[in-house]
Amino acid sequence: MRYISTRGQAPVLDFEGVLLAGLAEDGGLYVPEEWPQLSAQALRDLRGLDYVETAFRVTWPFVRGPIDADAYRRILTESYSAFGHPAVTPLVQLDRDLWALELFHGPTLAFKDVAMQLLGRLFDHVLEKRGKRITIVGATSGDTGSAAIEACRDRDNIDICILHPSGRTSAAQRRQMTTVSAKNVSNIAVEGDFDACQDIVKAMFADTEFRDEVNLSAVNSINWARVMAQIVYYVYSAVRLGAPDRRVSFAVPTGNFGNVFAAYAARQMGLPIAKLVIGSNSNDILTRFFESDDMTMRPVKPTISPSMDIQVSSNFERLLFDLYDRNGAATADAMQTFRASGVLQVGENRHAAAKDMFSAARFDDQETMAGIARWQKSSGYLMDPHTAVGLLAAEAHPTADSAMVVAATAHPAKFAGAIKEATGAEPELPERLAAVFAKEEHYATLPNTLSVIQNHVRKFRNRIS
Ligand SMILES: *Cc1c(COP(=O)(O)O)cnc(C)c1O
């Protein structure tokens, strides 16, 4: 498979190239040159296959070329053996035609593990081949750092340093990161807030000398391999519900548009998806776009579904590229206007094409908590706030002729505060989360000073204590 940039000005790359590049040189995002097709027969042939074999068949056309088939199968097997459910992403029936697709059985109990577990191993494999070693640096407000750490721990060719704001993450979030005992993992508590952490990371990337010295890299949400890994569970669940002979719709709680874009990709590949329903919290830029072609940047508001607290959905550019008939110059133009003016409008025809596939709905924290309480009461099913936003969106956009599947993106115990407020009771801690309270923490508390943190990264990389 060859990959092209959504802005049309970056070199065409193979899978290994896009894996390591992340963002394209022209500021665009890489997408496959064409969508590989899953015929009705190919979908029927997936019936009864396990997750790993399904993943291999669905994603191999994207990977083939630079990576060997046996090695890829081995990497997939290892990636999903760390999941706490034999089905990897099980379906739970909530109502006659309503299902939850639980994506939170990975090491950190949230859906990002599904892609990150694969990404870390793919990185390591490619680096090994090239005889390279990288240092991944990232900042977290608490939610996403642990998925990156779990993905990179114990990998031979990767060191990972995650910065979190000292004293400003929950104990559970901090412990999920700091109780990982691996010699290639370093946690840094920065004396400052999340913005300070992000500024330090940006400054490290801007320091070219330092960047080259430690081979700095990132694992961000726009990496094509993350989207690719997420396509699998849409195909896997739809086949289990009767595809291609029955149509399925998906409702997805959405922030950066990565998860729901993977569902769109599955549709482009031939999976019979009737509708894609997007759920937003009060940070509703996407819902405003799908409702009325009004994509206007607004300041971020903190909510009880923090992984969807975004101002701009970075993966949306991939859909935009298709809405502009894969015209890179037109996409680049639209993005430049958006960045400069804070407003994006695609016009009547493109907006109608988008609405044909997607519906969207927004829910504030009060509505979300009421939804959690109502579902727990009526069905006994306890949802985290992100999942609840997805489920409420599904209820707002019922479909007559298809099964509805809600992406359940986090385990409720990860958001115990909101659950307690919604239902009056703390959620039960799963084994994996309870275990972190018994383990020893490893982290360094450092001042909010670039040179001090750079020195720490340098010493860590060279294993000098
Ligand atoms: C990241 C995340 C989301 C949003 O996914 P996107 O791919 O950014 O749209 C939703 N729920 C949870 C729990 C997440 O961690």
Instruction: Indicate the CATH architecture of the domain at 91-106 and 224-423.
Output: 3-Layer(aba) Sandwich
CATH class of the domain at 91-106 and 224-423: Alpha Beta
Round the Cα radius of gyration to an integer and report it. 21 Å
Widest sheet, order of strands: 3-4-14-9-10-13
How many β-strands, per DSSP? 15
Query: What class would the helix/strand composition place it in?
Result: alpha/beta
Approximate strand percentage: 15-25%
Ligand species:
pyridoxal-5'-phosphate
Share of residues in helices: 40-55%
Task: Tally the helices.
Answer: 20
What is the global morphology?
A: globular
Biggest sheet, in brief?
6 strands, mixed
What is the average per-residue confidence, as pLDDT, rounded to a whole number? 95
Summary keywords:
6-stranded mixed sheet; Rossmann fold; alpha/beta; single chain; binds pyridoxal-5'-phosphate; 15% strand; 5-stranded parallel sheet; globular; 465 residues
Task: Give an overview in words.
By secondary structure, this protein is of the alpha/beta class. It has a domain of 216 residues: Rossmann fold (3-Layer(aba) Sandwich), CATH 3.40.50. The chain has 20 helices and 15 strands. The strands form 4 sheets. The protein has a 6-stranded mixed β-sheet with strand order 3-4-14-9-10-13. A 5-stranded parallel β-sheet has the order 8-5-6-7-15, with helices on both faces. Helix 10 crosses helix 11 and helix 16 packs across helix 18. It is globular and about 60 Å long. Pyridoxal-5'-phosphate binds next to helix 11.
